[in-house]
Amino acid sequence: MPEMSAPPHIDLVDPALYAHGDPFAQWRWLRANAPVHWQPPAELPGFWSLTRYDDVRTAYRDAETFSSAQGILLRPAEHGADPGGGRTLALTDPPRHRRLRALVDEWFAVRSIRALEPELREITRGVVDRALDRGNVDFVADVAARVPLYVICQMMGVPETDWERLYELTSQAFGGGDPLTRRFAHLEILGYFETLHAAKAADPGDDLVSVLATAEVDGERLSPDDVILNCDNLLVGGTENTRIAAAGGMLAFLERPGQWQALAADRDLLPSAVEEVLRWTSTATHIMRTAVRPVEIHGRTIEAGDKVVFWLPSANRDERVFDDPDVFDVRRQPNRHLALGFGEHFCLGSVLARVELRLLYGELLGREVRVEADGEPELLDSIVVNGPGRLPVALKRAG
User: Which family does it belong to (predicted)?
Assistant: First the structure.
């Protein structure tokens, strides 16, 4: 690939770039010219960017060099270390990561999700029914956000009477808006799990919170704080990326109606369509690691203690790996994207996310629901997750 002229300025941590700009132009240039790129410190600490598929995949696999325990997202230095560091599924390295994951792995295995599928289908059908009754909805808030949230609430043993309250809190905590509102909403979520943990520890049930509340790792019970942080981890991991992938996929279909028509004509394309939605949306914009020993990549030396950022949307559009990477194609084969991670930290809920997307799109297709744009989409101004923050649509029943 010929080198492109340098862009005027590389700044991948400007939130406005994702809402109003074109980060893919910067990633494309970096892949061609500077696949290991240093961004000096400013409001965020300095870090190395990896933008090529093979480099990201290799780093994902090397947990001995690239540690998760010091945080997996860029955050201002004044915020201090992530409180989940070394304690949660997402923020631990082997061997503790494997031991924590073993506690809940069975819940997310293929056979377990297959057994849950009738309940997941019922949840999905209920969400679509309510959206159809309204007609004009925000596909993000009224459809894409509710399916994965209700599902993970059910798996965690959250009473159905509390689902709407957690929906409101997660919308405030992890959406856009005032930082103070987001912080207080997140604190309320943690408080909710503190209460739920106490109830499940006293009277365990058949759910994920009960598993964590009664489990032992290395011969010791998890502390209440560790259980609460891991509940928060499961809630975020089980909702955010699926929500934005489902909505981002629908936006891609609205912009390319021929792809939706191809899917409607051949439902056997649903599995490959789901994989293409995951690749195309790559909703986790960045994942961070900390180097624990020096390593050289493409002639650049990364020192121990340096932050290293994997830009997943860039890796999943790498022209060295994907034919026509900037084309959305529900027939794409093969499709070995990294949207759900790789190696030790391959997404625990990857099977669940795929089933949720398949059931949601399948429900709309099976009922021949017409989905039409009903206003301009609004993209998130975030360096953490990328995609629609709002997607106004009109849903119309067949006939």
Answer: Belongs to the cytochrome P450 family.
CA distances from 378 to 175, 289, 291, 298, 388 (A): 12, 30, 36, 37, 6
Longest dimension (CA), the chain: 64
Secondary structure of residue 238 in the 3-state scheme: helix
Instruction: Provide the whole-model pTM.
Output: 0.95
Cα distance between residue 53 and residue 328, in whole Å: 18
| 89 in Cβ contact with 348 (< 8 Å) | yes
Residue 139 pLDDT class (50, 70, 90 cuts): very high
Cα dihedral value 40, 41, 47, 50, nearest 10: -50
Tokens representing 14 are 């400007």
pLDDT band, very low/low/confident/very high, at 120 (cuts 50, 70, 90): very high
Q: Write the single-letter amino acid at 220.
A: E
Phi, psi of 157 (to 5 degrees): 80, 20
Please provide residue 39's backbone torsions phi and psi, each rounded to the nearest 5 degrees. Answer: -105, 120
List the structure tokens of 370. Answer: 């017409």
Tell me the residue length of the chain: 399
